[in-house]
Amino acid sequence: MFWLEGDAAPPAQSAVSELVSNLESQIGVQLFDRTERYPKLTPAGADARTVVGNVAVLKARAKGISGGLEPELRRCGCALSY
Question: Domain segments of the chain: what residues?
Answer without folding.
Answer: 12-36
